[in-house]
Specification:
The complex is a heterodimer of chains A (about 190) and B (about 170).
Chain A (H helix, E strand, L loop, with lengths): L2 H12 L3 E4 L3 H9 L5 E3 L7 H11 L4 E6 H6 L3 H7 L5 E7 L2 E2 L5 E2 L8 H7 L4 E6 L3 H11 L3 E6 L14 H16 L1
Helix pairs in contact in A: 1-2, 1-7
Chain B lengths: L3 H12 L2 E6 L6 H9 L4 E4 L3 H13 L3 E7 L3 H13 L5 E7 L8 H16 L4 E4 L8 H11 L2 E7 H6 L2
Parallel strand pairs in B: 1-2, 1-3, 3-4, 4-6, 5-6
Classes of the chains: A alpha/beta (about 190), B alpha/beta (about 170).
The structure holds thiamine diphosphate.
């Protein structure tokens, strides 16, 4: 399974939930599979998906799912220590670990080599760290949300992207509809 | 020990409903950070790097809470991509309380290297900036914080060594 297959299997779980999605192919694929106002698409700023997701989770009560990538987590690796030390039990960080920088042509990352993001997350002090296969991801995501405990899921999958178009929506529109959705869900 | 100027900065942040603050320390910011950390209406979340902090602030703002970052001017280089492709691109208000190291009165020569680039960088990035040289300028902070929310832009408050040393 590749990232797109994971997104397809978790789309029903993401429906009507707050989702912060990583730059490039992940956001483009999600946009095609399940566009909704409660999705925040990153159009740039590689590395900050988990930080944005944590920020959202800390200031309101609805569950937040950040869909990140192994390359982006590696570029902002210290985020795992911030997450561990500021637990938000409505926060799930799903790292789609395809061992590569998918969006830029599947160049290998260190997460596909000697480095285990699962072990890094644990060493940073994260409590509920789950490594699973692509096939198990939907069930693990469901479990993480209903556990009411902040969870980091590292979903191991194959590199690869599908052909989808870029997101042509306006960033301010993406931000506004996301914020409005948060307000509505919390009211 | 926080000064009355540090306290005035905190009061202004609270008055302007800034409820989420991230920081990376600087010696000059120690008093403000101490006050922010212990204030019950502010969630203080130290970040490891300022670009990470800007991600946290963007998330909090989208989630409905006004945010701000406390940082040193040396961090500007680290944060440019985040300022441009996240904070400015999505129209997120972000007050940046910045210790302006490397100005007259500085004791660490290396700090001057980044001080030279600070205003030109802010200028180039179209970021409104306000240079604080005297403690009484803290009175203009309310207006600057309101301005940032109104125009949904990052703004930089550059507080230099003279500002901090004139604080009582
Ligand atoms: C600072 C910066 N460097 C490089 C890039 C180019 N870039 C965009 S997405 C991406 C790959 C991200 O990989 P990963 O987070 O593993 O996600 P994947 O696409 O594999 O799901 C890269 C390198 C960028 N956008 N910004």
């Amino acid at each position: 399974m590749i990232r797109y297959d994971i997104l397809k299997t978790i789309a029903p779980i993401l429906k009507d939930r707050l989702v912060v999605c990583n730059i490039g192919s992940p956001s483009q694929e999600l946009y095609q599979l399940l566009d909704q106002p409660s999705n925040f698409y990153m159009l740039g700023t590689m590395g900050l998906c988990s930080s944005i997701g944590l920020g959202v989770a800390l200031v309101q009560d609805q569950p937040v799912i950040a869909i990140d990538g192994d390359g982006s987590v590696l570029t902002n690796l210290a985020t795992l220590s911030t997450i561990a030390n500021n637990p938000a039990d409505n926060f799930v960080l799903l790292i789609v670990d395809n061992g590569s920088y998918g969006s830029t042509g599947d160049q290998p990352t260190y997460a596909g080599m000697a480095t285990s993001l699962t072990e890094v997350a644990k060493a940073c002090g994260c409590r509920n760290v789950v490594e699973c296969s692509a096939e198990e991801t939907a069930a693990e995501l469901e479990r993480a949300i209903s556990s009411g405990k902040m969870t980091i899921i590292i979903s191991k999958c194959q590199p690869g992207n599908v052909n989808v178009s870029v997101i042509d929506d306006d960033p301010v529109n993406i931000a506004n509809r996301f914020s409005n959705q948060i307000r509505e869900l919390n009211s | 020990m926080p000064t009355t100027t540090d306290k005035a900065i905190l009061d202004s942040l609270v008055r302007n409903k800034i409820g989420f603050i991230t920081s990376v320390p600087c010696k000059q910011l120690a008093g403000v950070i101490e006050l922010v950390d212990s204030h019950e209406e502010i969630y203080h979340i130290p970040s490891n790097k300022e670009d990470e902090g800007m991600g946290l602030c963007a998330g909090a703002y989208l989630g409905g809470t006004r945010s701000a970052i406390i940082m040193q001017n040396t961090a500007l280089g680290v944060a440019i991509n985040s300022l441009v492709t996240l904070i400015q691109y999505y129209h997120i208000p972000l007050p940046m309380l910045i210790s302006y190291r490397g100005e007259v009165g500085e004791k660490v020569a290396c700090q001057v290297e980044m001080a030279i680039h600070t205003k030109p960088l802010l200028q180039q990035l179209n970021i409104p900036h306000y240079h604080f040289t005297k403690a009484e300028q803290v009175n203009s902070l309310d207006g600057i914080l309101q301005h940032s929310q109104m125009c949904k832009k990052p703004v930089a408050i550059l507080a230099d060594a003279s500002f901090w040393s004139s604080a009582s």
